[in-house]
Amino acid sequence: MAGRYVMSIDQGTTSTRCILFDHGGRLVSVAQREHQQYFPRPGWVEHDALEIWRNLRRIAPEALSGAGVAVEEVSALGIANQRETTVLWDRRTGTPLGRAIVWQDTRTAPLVEDLRNHPGDDFFMARCGLPPSTYFSAPRIRWLFDHVAGLERRARDGEVLFGTMETWLIWNLTGGTAGGRHITDVTNASRTMLMNMRTLQWDEELLEFFGVPRAILPEIRPSAERYGEDRSVLPGMPITAALGDQQAALFGQTCFSPGEAKCTYGTGSFLMLNTGTDVVRSLNGLLTTVAYKIGDRPAVYALEGPIAVTGALVQWFRDRLELISSAPGIETLARTVEDNGGCYIVPAFSGLFAPHWRSDARGVIVGLTSYVTKGHLARAALEATGWQTREVVDAMNADSSLTLKELKVDGGMTSDNLLMQILADVLDVPVVRPMAVETVSLGAAYAAGLAAGYWADLEVLRRNWHRAAQWLPDMDPARRASEYENWQRAVERSLGWIRRPNGP
């Protein structure tokens, strides 16, 4: 353990943060900078990869100076990143070939619909564990090849590099055009639709199907091992870890054993269940993904259930309906009533993710009567997050031999104590929130520190985890079953919504 600290970069959808942690997993210093969101057309979401790189160059030194720490006092650097966001850049100049296409972007929807019809979900699920979706990187690469003149030819001639955000940052940190390392880790590679889930290598059949030349792809490496040294921002600092943000949160929550699960509650939510070294192919609408791989140890896998709209529903209450003035106001309003008054909200603003994967679903509010008040609506909004989580948990229990015993939670919505109690009630398991709230950044730091010898093993990290709060189930089983049945009926309405040629 050469240094006193470990540094983590959390390259997120709206900002990039750089955080220093000490040996107890405590936050020492943080620096953050937001980047611009571009929406050039309906459904399109883009980022400027150069802006993100410039931001990182500014905030990494700020995080050190804020704590009065020298580079030599930091043992290692780990990176967590927004997953699936796609960057293509010129190998010779290092210039991005257009803006990065963000994971939220839906421009590939027509292509994805074709893929679901032919060759169909099974072709992809058998190889990469993912169904065709606008969510993933490969359809974006194909779209760029089809819409940017000369790009595919340049890619085949070896002039173009592809990466998700951790690849772009590592390439720049380790030298860029002067010998930068072009690598990705298994967790991010597992979100491209191009990696074989069992071999952990690029799959030849998938590359051929999408027409992606191997020359543009980064080398796939473990999540935690020495990748190289920073040569441009903090010279000499070892770069020893990279994980997709949700896998980093799982690691930060120390969910190291099969059956342990976490859910991150933000704008959307992401529930991930550790399935150990078993590749569990979902038959119930979940994603099979790599949770992490430490050095030469076997990869650990997970089932994941992304939920598109959770915190975004609260934002809708605030910004569109103007029923609350701030996000925390949803809890205050919901506590004015005892129940939902028979009202249920399915927030399928742009379709439903897991376990339905229906882009044609639309949001519905059912059970409205003159009795229903804005308090009931607020309660129904919080319960919508609970019931969507329950659908994912049911799918996980059905897919695996593991039964959820406890749910660890993180993210901004976990400050809502009523929501946490609702989760415990609808799941019928304890819900626990940790002391450390920066679980994504902490997970990247933990992986980096393990690879650098800063922490000895996973058990040391487990001892760093401390519970801040716990909620226990307190709902009558008969009521739980009845409420869930009503929710499922509401979902059926959402899935049965049909857009006619001249409107709904």
Structural overview:
The chain is of the alpha/beta class and 504 residues long. The chain has helices spanning 49-67, 109-128, 137-147, 151-156, 165-173, 186-189, 204-210, 245-252, 311-319, 329-334, 374-399, 417-427, 439-452, 458-464, 477-495, and strands spanning 5-11, 15-21, 27-34, 46-47, 74-81, 87-90, 100-101, 160-163, 183-185, 219-221, 224-229, 238-244, 261-265, 269-276, 287-292, 300-307, 344-346, 364-366, 407-410, 431-434, 467-471. It has a 7-stranded mixed β-sheet with strand order 15-16-14-13-19-20-21. A hairpin with a 7-residue loop joins strand 15 and strand 16 (300-307). Helix 8 (245-252) packs across helix 13. The chain is globular. The relative contact order is 0.12. Residues 500-504 have low confidence and may be disordered.
Q: Could you estimate the helical fraction of the residues in percent?
A: 25-40%
Cα distance, first to last residue? 63 Å
What strand order characterises the main sheet? 15-16-14-13-19-20-21
Q: What proportion of the residues form beta strands (DSSP E)?
A: 15-25%
Point out poorly predicted stretches: 500-504
Rg, Cα atoms, Å: 22 Å
Number of helical elements: 15
Helical/strand content category: alpha/beta
Give the overall average pLDDT: 92
Anisotropy-based shape:
globular
Q: What is the number of beta strands?
A: 21
- Quick one: biggest sheet? 7 strands, mixed
Jot down its keywords:
15 helices; disordered C terminus; 504 residues; six-stranded mixed β-sheet; globular; alpha/beta; seven-stranded mixed β-sheet; 21 strands
